[in-house]
């Protein structure tokens, strides 16, 4: 069994260490991080998994972004510690967080990742949606949480800067209810990647991310 919890400030150092382990300390140079700078994440959707000995074994994060004049969720990073590879933790975090996003009323989610892997969750290439360069357009993927949410939506992906949205996210992040909302979960083993989203496989160069 694993402990599934929303990420809080007390978890941040461990989550950052996990991300460094999976992606390296140069990960913040990726173009997707430009969309996160100075923007709070969506607290209810940033989840962690702890295993034996309370060790941090997996985490997923979401940020609000704008595509044209519409709101969207930017999924990532999602990472699973290499020692837990193949146990289905990445899939569990994906399914749980996307279910929560839909229940919250979000309409659309996007990410930068491998289509063959994320296709299992319903993600497909987004034509005409432009991430900051350099990003391979084939890796810009989207999922509709509401039917038709991506239809006809094109344009550059930009940071969420509306004051009312940022203030609301900060208020949620400080909520005591968020800190106590943990559950025990089990997983079914699958072929989930150890480290996914935002990054190309190790053999790919940074120019193709």
What does this structure look like?
The chain is an alpha+beta fold and 209 residues long. 22% of the residues lie in helices and 27% in strands. The protein has helices at residues 12-23, 89-104, 115-118, 163-173, 176-179, and strands spanning 2-6, 47-50, 56-67, 70-80, 108-112, 124-125, 129-130, 140-144, 155-159, 183-185, 195-196. Strands 1, 2, 3, 4, 5, 6, 7, 8, 9, 10 and 11 form an eleven-stranded mixed β-sheet that branches. Residues 199-209 have low confidence and may be disordered.
Q: Helix proportion of residues, in percent?
A: 10-25%
Computed structural class? alpha+beta
| Number of separate strands | 11
Poorly predicted segments: 199-209
H/E series: EHEEEHEHEEEEHHEE
State the shape: globular
Largest sheet: 11 strands, mixed
Proportion of β residues? 25-35%
Rg from Cα: 16 Å
Distance between the ends: 34 Å
Number of helices: 5
Q: What is the overall pLDDT average?
A: 85
Can I get a quick summary?
This protein is of the alpha+beta class. It is 22% helix and 27% strand.
Could you name the key traits of this structure?
disordered C terminus; globular; 27% strand; 5 helices; alpha+beta; 209 residues; 11-stranded mixed sheet
List the helices and strands and how they pair.
Elements: E1 2-6, H1 12-23, E2 47-50, E3 56-67, E4 70-80, H2 89-104, E5 108-112, H3 115-118, E6 124-125, E7 129-130, E8 140-144, E9 155-159, H4 163-173, H5 176-179, E10 183-185, E11 195-196
């Amino acid at each position: 069994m694993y402990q599934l919890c929303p990420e809080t400030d007390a978890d941040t150092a461990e989550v950052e260490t996990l991300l460094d382990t999976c992606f390296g300390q140069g990960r913040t140079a990726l173009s997707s991080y430009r969309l996160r700078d100075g923007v709070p994440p969506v607290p209810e959707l940033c989840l962690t998994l702890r295993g034996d000995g309370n060790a941090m074994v997996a985490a997923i994060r979401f940020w609000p972004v704008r595509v044209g004049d519409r709101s969207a969720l930017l999924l990532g990073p999602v990472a699973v510690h290499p020692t837990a590879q193949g146990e289905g933790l990445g899939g569990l975090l994906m399914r749980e967080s996307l279910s929560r996003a839909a229940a919250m009323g979000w309409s659309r989610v996007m990410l930068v990742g491998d289509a063959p892997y994320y296709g299992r969750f319903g993600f497909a290439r987004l034509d005409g949606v432009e991430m900051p360069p350099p990003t391979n357009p084939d890796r810009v993927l989207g999922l509709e949480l509401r039917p038709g949410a991506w239809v006809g939506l094109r344009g550059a992906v930009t940071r969420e800067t509306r004051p009312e949205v940022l203030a609301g996210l900060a208020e949620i992040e400080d909520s005591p209810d968020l800190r106590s909302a943990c559950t025990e979960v089990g997983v079914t083993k699958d072929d989930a990647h150890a480290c996914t989203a935002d990054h190309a496989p190790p053999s790919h160069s940074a120019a193709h991310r």
